[in-house]
Amino acid sequence: MDRETGEPSEIELTTLRISQGTISSSPPASSPLSLGEPVVDGSLPKSKKNASSREGAVPSPKAKNSSNLKKKESREGLEVRKSDDFSMWYNQLVQKAELIEFYDISGCYILRPASYRIWEAIQSYFDKEIKKLGVENAYFPIFVSASRLNQEKDHVAGFAPEVAWVTKSGDSPLEEPIAVRPTSETVMYPSFAKWIRSHRDLPLKINQWNNVVRWEFKHPTPFLRSREFLWQEGHTAFATKEEADCEVLQILELYRSVYEDLLAVPVIKGKKSDKEKFAGGLYTTTVEAFIPHNGRAIQAATSHCLGQNFANMFDITFEDENRFRKKVYQNSWGLTTRSIGVMIMVHSDDKGLVLPPKVAPIQVVVVPIRIRVNQEEINHLLDQECETYTLQLERRGIRVKLDCRNDKTPGWKFHHWELRGVCLRVEVGVKEMHSNELVIVRRDTGERTVVSKNDLCERITQLLDTMQEEMLLRARNIRDHCISVAYNWNDFMTAIDSKQMVLAPWCTETRCEEEVKRQSMEYSASRGYDSVEEQTNLTGAVKTLCLPFEEELNRWNISPLSAGSLCFACHSSAKAWTLWGRSY
Ligand code: 87F
Q: Which residues cross the membrane (predicted)?
């Protein structure tokens, strides 16, 4: 069993990974040229204004008398801080906030309603946007025959160990084993070859919302790395390369928008290096996110230009206006449920989940603060008043919940809804009944705002908008402080070791990238990074994350590379500013 998750573990794989990382080298000396001070918030929220000043205002008879219930209550919350043990914190959080239920097959997780709702919000937003671009949804089978899968040997070769196969029905072996799709190029493209005849059939833009299976051997993590996951995969075909190039960026912009405008997670747009791009394609663009608490970057979504590679393999051709037969240019692009995990890691805290209002299943909870004893009449009025507010908010389209359970104390309810990431709490006590004001508490900052009852709906809407906006700004500010600039190896590794991403002038050669990866692993091993790896099952190797687009460099005030710039690693001529980091 896994010490943190209670999942069945894969001991042999962990052992293999650790034994790979034990080589030594000498540590570097000097410090990085940071874009700012590294800020990794390691503290529990200290807000005095916070939450539970009213905790226990009404001890319910049960809570008072039953030690059993008390025990249960204290186990509801997180027992570990984000800064003390990040991966244990995350595993507790996804379970206690009722996002994930573990399953008896390693790497497979149950997405509970609370997390599936978030996925639905992402789906609904992205689906609308791609439809505006003329993309149509379809559904292709989950199974791929061996011959189809191998039709396109080159790119599948590297992934072969991850393909899961069905070999039996009941007790009888199948005539030919059948693969479960790890991605659908080989499933879809034979149909594309049939459907596309003339230039009039182009562009063809197909998307599917589906599940895929990749039998990963790396340590699984809920949302971030699972053996079955949900995603959308878009597959498009065009008459010209220009149209394909244009769509690659349109989709990348939508991915940025999903992360930044919906999930309030800042991302960096860029192009993948040759080593990190999708092997079957021409070039890969990416949005990269960052988890400050462990200094890990994470690929958030990718938009590939496939060029004519697949058109060659699957014979996807069209007759142009002049009756010449031509090959199509294709793209593919994907966004997965990993996005939910990234959002949780970036925003949540020691009290539990913090959700941006746009995707929060419950945006507001109304909690009556009842009077202790023998005041049933007043308590009843209090409930009625709470119901009125709930209805008002509901009518405005706000996702609101009224919690008038009478076997739970207000303090217990505060913690309960904080753990589950409800954005705002409206507290209604006897004081509020007799005044014209209400108290609203923000989940992300703990800030209390007193509002006039007449303005409740407007103020709630305002607070939700502000919270959405500030969550992104805060996360971006922290993320930007985790980017250093380095011109040499020592500065580079020092920054990496302080959980930073590093922007460095680079020669763009694959050989150099491989050498950086090797040397950074040696370096990490020599600095005892092994033990961190052991705990987190993440490697100490440093990779290129992307060659950031100019717009990103401009935002950081990084001027273009000057003529004589040298590669930070191999000292040959530098071709591009490149973002490096340890990653998931
Ligand atoms: C695992 C097994 C077999 C990734 C795999 O990114 C094949 C593959 O082709 C494989 N893992 N890939 C690359 C997927 C490329 C591409 N497909 C459509 C995307 C977006 C959506």
A: none
**Least confident span in 22-31, 99-108, 168-177, 269-278:** 22-31
In DSSP terms, 437 is beta-bridged to 452
Which of 347, 375, 391 terminates a domain? The answer is 347
Select from 148, 237, 158 the least CA-distant residue to 184. 148
Of 312, 346, 345, nearest in space to 329 by CA: 312
Q: Which domain holds residue 548?
A: 483-583
Decide: 98 in ligand 1 pocket, CB within 6 A. Answer: no
Specify whether the CB–CB gap between 521 and 541 falls below 8 A. Answer: yes
- The CA distances from residue 300 to 115, 288, 338, 350, 407, in Å, are 18, 5, 7, 24, 43
Q: What is the pLDDT of residues 406-441, one digit of tens each?
A: 999 999 999 999 999 999 999 999 899 899 999 999
Residue nearest to atom 2 of ligand 1 (CA): 159
Please state, in angstroms and rounded to a whole number, the distance separating the CA atoms of residues 347 and 341: 10
The two tokens of residue 438 are 């209400």
Residue 521 backbone dihedrals phi, psi, to 5 degrees: -70, -45
Q: What is the pLDDT of residues 486-517, one digit of tens each?
A: 999 999 999 999 999 999 999 999 999 999 99
Q: From ligand 1's centre to the CA of 214, what distance in Å?
A: 9
Q: Are residues 193 and 291 in the same domain?
A: yes
Question: What DSSP letter does each residue of 491-533 carry, written as one string?
Answer: HHHHHHHTT-EEEEEE---HHHHHHHHHHHHHHHHHTTHHHHH
Beta pairing class for 364-368 and 424-428: parallel
Q: Is the CB of 333 under 6 A from ligand 1?
A: yes
Cis upstream peptide for 203 (omega within 30°): yes
Nearest protein CA to atom 15 of ligand 1, as residue: 278
Report how far ligand 1's centroid is from the alpha carbon of 183 (Å).
Answer: 5
For the domain that residue 549 is a member of, what is the CATH number?
Answer: 3.30.110.30
Paired sense of beta strands 100-102 and 33-34, if any: unpaired
* Beta-carbon-side half-sphere exposure of residue 73 (alpha carbons within 13 Å): 21
For residue 577, the surrounding DSSP H or E stretch is strand 576-581
The 10s digit of each residue's pLDDT in 174-201 is: 999 999 999 999 999 999 999 999 999 9
Say yes or no: 325 and 372 in one domain: no
Give the span between the Cα atoms of 198 and 214, in whole angstroms.
35
**For the whole prediction, is pTM greater than 0.70?**
yes
Q: How far apart are CA 519 and CA 510, in angstroms?
A: 14
